[in-house]
Amino acid sequence: MEIYCPNCYYPNKVENKQCEKCFHSLELQDDNDNYERKLIKALSHKNQEVVQRAAGLLFNFKSWKSESALIKTISETKDLFVKTAAISSLSITGAERSIPVFKKEASRGYLMPRLQAIEAIGLKGGFKEIKYLKKCLKIE
In which element (H, E) is residue 39 found? Predict the structure, then answer.
């Protein structure tokens, strides 16, 4: 099992007291709101690996703030790994307003994010969205 550094989001062994990469303390904090804010802030980090990790971890927070940050990341990033991670997290945390984002991503772009968006539509969507998927995939 791993724990992610709240500073650089590097994966560490659970028993570590400090991050192997940046030496930041790994002592667990009870302040989930603070951790969510740090993850959202990390979505604008210059290192795309950090952004991808943060996007992947935001599924733990089913809040409007996380959902909005993930939607923004999906629409603005050009990195397909970040986009895929953000779509995956949003498919778990997202509400009704995330479906148009999934539809948009399912109909364009690179294969990985498209497939993740198609899966998200299948998870979140109703009958209308299933019809949309059939149209997207040219299934009758």
Answer: helix 32-42
In whole numbers, what is the pLDDT of the chain averaged over residues? Answer: 87
Query: Do the beta carbons of residue 6 and residue 21 sit within 8 Å?
Result: no
Strand partners, 25: 18
- Name 18's bridge partners: 25
pLDDT at 1: 67
CATH 1.25.10.10 at 33-136, yes or no: yes
pLDDT of residue 122: 83
Please answer whether residues 60 and 51 qualify as being in contact, where contact means their C-beta atoms are separated by less than 8 angstroms.
no
Domain coordinates of the chain in residue numbers? 1-30, 33-136
Query: Do 42 and 54 contact (CB within 8 A), yes or no?
Result: yes
Q: Report residue 31 as tokens.
A: 């302040």
> String of b and e for 94-132 (b: at least 16 CB within 10 Å)?
beeebbebbbebbeeeeeebbebbbbbbeebbeeebeeb
| Model confidence, pTM | 0.77
Per residue in 38-96, pLDDT tens? 899 999 999 999 999 999 999 988 889 999 999 999 999 999 999 999 999 999 987 78
